[in-house]
């Protein structure tokens, strides 16, 4: 049976590299969906891919727009009946020109609520042995938060909706100017990435209960430092950064892990190795 893969935020950066890598490693019977919130940027990216082994299709997808998310899931179900590979990569950027308290709402809406919405729309479409990654980073280890905030990300006891509520609580604290006093880190990417990893952990935990023999593996990943438009403004030199293609390679290995692989599951993975949560 042909495989169906989808990459969010695929018109540039890591998402584009993941799309290209998947399209060159899957077969001519398989489909890769290059999705982007902008039709123009998405179609330009599709054009620049050139010839690939697998069939690549463009689909418009804004992860913050529930209608757009539902439309894509409906299309995938109608066309293919299910999904085998998901790279949930779409992410808003942080810019230097405004305080992070002014950016936090849109940032969490995309990076956390958007990835949660994608998972909600695709979970029932995941075929046996599906592989799902949420692109996070090593900032997403819970140990990057002070211990008194750990109960907000208790992935043994909490639900996906609980994590959404923790993220909203963080947004409110940032906007009210109380986040620092409450012990949250100043860099909004840290709580956001912890929320993403928590989401992957809970999704994996729940899937193991609901579909114990499904063989589905869901993980968060850290690509390492990559030279992209998002990271470049924050560094004087990108000498130590990898290209998006280099960063994508181990993530693609994880997405193409053989059907009999049972690990990793519910983990944060960097360069093929599991990073501790605590
Ligand atoms: N770069 C690094 O060093 C690094 C390190 C660790 C982790 N990461 C993670 O890797 C992921 C990709 O990073 P990147 O550096 O490739 O970022 P990027 O170059 O900014 O690419 C982000 C992609 O997400 C898309 N996007 C933004 N909002 C969206 C929305 N509402 N719906 C759908 N797509 C949306 C962007 O589309 P537009 O082009 O339309 O804006 C773009 O295609 C992020 O999760 C990031 O946190 C990156």
Highlighted features:
278 residues; alpha/beta; Rossmann fold; binds NADP nicotinamide-adenine-dinucleotide phosphate
Could you characterize what this model shows?
- It is a single chain.
- The protein is an alpha/beta fold and 278 residues long.
- It has one domain: NAD(P)-binding Rossmann-like Domain (Rossmann fold, 3-Layer(aba) Sandwich).
- Helix content is 42%, strand content 16%.
- The protein is built from eight helices and eight strands.
- It has an eight-stranded mixed beta sheet with strand order 3-2-1-4-5-6-7-8, sandwiched between helices.
- Strand 7 (268-270) and strand 8 (273-275) form a beta hairpin.
- Helix 3 packs parallel to helix 4 (100-122) and helix 4 (100-122) packs antiparallel against helix 5 (160-176).
- It is globular and about 55 Å long.
- The termini are far apart.
- The mean pLDDT is 98.
- The structure holds NADP nicotinamide-adenine-dinucleotide phosphate.
| CATH homologous superfamily placement | NAD(P)-binding Rossmann-like Domain
What compounds sit in this structure?
A: NADP nicotinamide-adenine-dinucleotide phosphate
Q: The CATH topology, please?
A: Rossmann fold
Number of helices, where a helix is a run of at least 4 consecutive DSSP H or I residues:
8
Number of separate structural domains: 1
Q: Return the structural class.
A: alpha/beta
The count of DSSP E runs of length 2 or more, i.e. the number of strands, is 8
- Rg to the nearest angstrom? 18 Å
The outline comes out as globular
